[in-house]
Amino acid sequence: MANACSLNRNTKVPYTDEEAEKYAREVSVDPRPQEVKSEIDERGAFIRQPNAFIKPFGDGAGDLKAEANRFAIYWAHGCHWSNRPVIVRDILGLTDVIADAHTTHSGETNLYGHGFGDSPDHKDPILGAYFLSEFYKRANPDFKGRATTPTLVDVKEKTAVNNDYHRLTNYIEVQFRKFQPTDAPDLYPVKYRKEIDEFNDWLFPTINNGHYRMAFCQSYEAYQESYDDFFDSIEKIDERLKTNRFLFGDYITDSDVRLYVTLVRWETSYYHNVGPIKKRITEYENIWGYVKELFAIPEFRKYTFFEFPEKKTKGIFASYAERIASQVPYDELWKTDGSRKSLSEDPENVYKKHPEGETAEDYQSVISVSKWNSEDPARRNPFERTLSTDASINPIVSKLRD
């Protein structure tokens, strides 16, 4: 099947736990902490760890500075958080400015977290590391949490500098504007950043992190509240997309990238882990048309990965993923019919152009700080959120056309 699964996910040389253990001793890497042990509150709810490296890109003292060929995005095929920055980078024409390396499990059981099983000698092809966590330890020898993707690594210093998926795409959009082609799309219009940020910070607990809240929680109470929150929010999005081609109207924004990657993973993989589901994504008329339209765009399609596991189950009860997934004609099923163009006043274009005469300096602004990185777990409670306009309504009346 000729789709976005073109990147090789299966190393020809098996990566054993014994090999991972050997490398871990060599570079003094600790086992990866487990979410279901270290990130569960007293109610049995999953409260995700804050990101460890959140120093912003900007012009302030101590801020990270955008440079060409200085940084690489470390990402994983199956991690929707990390699919986001590589999609944005590609859309904005920055593939020659920001490098990337994709990670895999380390060994058979992933005891040491993100490794490089698809690379020769199971080493990072850019800097030669065995584990992503090596860059964390180099940046902070006292780091004890999970090394996560995406992580932006300074390839000169060989250290992790930013793993803040809440804002990383915004830094790429704004601070790396000077390296983008003059006609690069505007995914984060200056005029509407407040609305986009507010929506993104609602999208995180309700939908982006919704699957994990169901999959990792340890009590029925926590499961039911996360289940209801996820599907209630999905229904609001479906209503919004009834009259909007994309989340904010006629053109794709940063928010669409964030929603798309989660919906794809949910439909093709995540739902297996959460028990009974209310509806599949394919059953939401507006969302399903929206997902298919985005899938047709090369930069989205390139980073859309379907799960084709090797058949390992003995006996008659092999999973759907093992028996059927590799036979699903995704290319045909996910083909858009173009009908959503009728919702736009600019139907042949999916990206907004930058305003006439706008310079890279005009595009700069201070990127807001995400509350979801607070050290206080109470502040990271998924119900501690606000949204000025109900999520079912696009607050931008002009639908981004001005």
Note the main sheet. Answer: 5 strands, mixed
Strand order of the largest sheet: 3-2-1-4-5
Count every beta strand, where a strand is a DSSP E run of 2 or more residues.
5
Class by SSE composition:
mainly alpha
* Individual helix count: 13
Map the helices and strands.
Layout: H1 17-27, H2 35-38, E1 71-76, H3 80-91, E2 99-105, E3 114-115, H4 133-139, E4 151-154, E5 159-162, H5 168-174, H6 193-208, H7 210-216, H8 220-240, H9 254-268, H10 285-295, H11 298-302, H12 320-323, H13 330-333
Parallel strand pairs: 1-2
Antiparallel strand pairs: 1-4, 2-3, 4-5
Helix pairs in contact: 3-5, 3-9, 6-9, 7-8
Name some characteristics of this structure.
402 residues, Glutaredoxin, mainly alpha, 13 helices, single chain
